[in-house]
Amino acid sequence: MTEFQRRRTELMRRIGANSIVILPTAREFVRNRDVHHPFRPDSDFYYLSGFAEPDAVLVLAPGRQQGEYALFCREKDPQSEQWEGYRAGLEGVVTDYGADEAFSYAEMDVVMPDLLAQREQVFYPLGCDQAFDQRVIRWLSQVRNQARSGIQAPLSIASLDQHLHEMRLYKTALEVGTLRRAAQISAAAHQAVMQTCKPGQYEYQLAATFQYDCQRQGAQALAYPSIVGGGENACVLHYIDNRDRLGDGDLVLIDAGCELDYYAADITRTFPVNGRFTEAQAQLYELVLAAQQAAIAHVKPGHDWNDPHLAATRVLTEGLLRLGILQGDLDTALAEERYKPYYMHRTGHWLGMDVHDVGAYQMDGDWRPLEAGMVLTVEPGLYMPKDDSKVAEKWRGIGIRIEDDVLVGTNGPEVLSQDVPKSICEIEALMAT
Ligand code: GLY
Ligand code: MN
Ligand code: MN
User: Hey, which of 2, 19, 258, 271 has its CA 20 to 30 A from 246?
Assistant: First the structure.
């Protein structure tokens, strides 16, 4: 709770007095009649509150006499709790979650206009929830209607992103610990998948093994639907059908990570279904691995966000020229991005509570410098089209991605997901056991 308190204090310092933050948690969504999708709190909301119940809104009002931190939440209700489980209730959010003041979610329309009065700027994530947007606008016009009684209404609604998402980009020691553990759990699950994979199994069986092994180790959920693509399915970047049978002699790509305490892992490995790489598979695999290693070497202070991508595309282009898949000289091929038909995505993204985490990638039009405490993925790949006559037959339909989660350390990269093997001999050795 001290960490959540520290975050709220820091955010209030950044937005300044005379401002107010209104931040609802995620909504519950119906899946089908009487069944909801599993509830997951909004990451920004949880980052500031540590509170995981639905129907909650956080308010930060710097300098407010009755308390700077107000939380709207569900009231205690023995009958609902009998069916759906424990609720902290108004007293609980004060004693257990550090709120200065608690209000019933049902009272929001009555209370909120008073909280907004005399504030100059409202920080609220406009455009995320239309129904809530309408309520905020209604509250603001109610305050404006009191202008003749000398009440000042807020003049602007601003996004919290530049403050809150900047904070979330720099991970604290506690957050790095959770990310490291999420990566370790996921790494062990990837190993379990490699060890049990056999020709004739189905993609969904590998997905099931992965999820089982993560949850067995205490992860509450997957961070995103697992991608398990055998053979040419690996060339579909976000293939989640996971329906096909795995062919002897094919590679399988699995991109999967768990969510632990609302922090994500995002790991990809590509390995041969039968445990042995063919020569063509191995040539492309070594190339992607070399690109990934070159990119990881650039994940350190002193480099900027784009440097790992530049390193990866250089190694990939060199290799594609060497293998005769591309023609021409290196500098021209790079300048013309000739690798793009085979490598069409970027080399990574920020990682944190959200798998594609928040935080700006550029500042004032330049790629932003990497700094200690940032966490990102490094995930180059090659995806050879299955019916492109320009590509020699032996390469067609091969899809490879290798993805690790990397912390920018003070002295260099720390690969949080290093426990899953990725060299050809390590993979073949593990799969032979
Ligand atoms: N799993 C989605 C991604 O790698 O970005
Ligand atoms: Mn991924
Ligand atoms: Mn990723």
Answer: 258
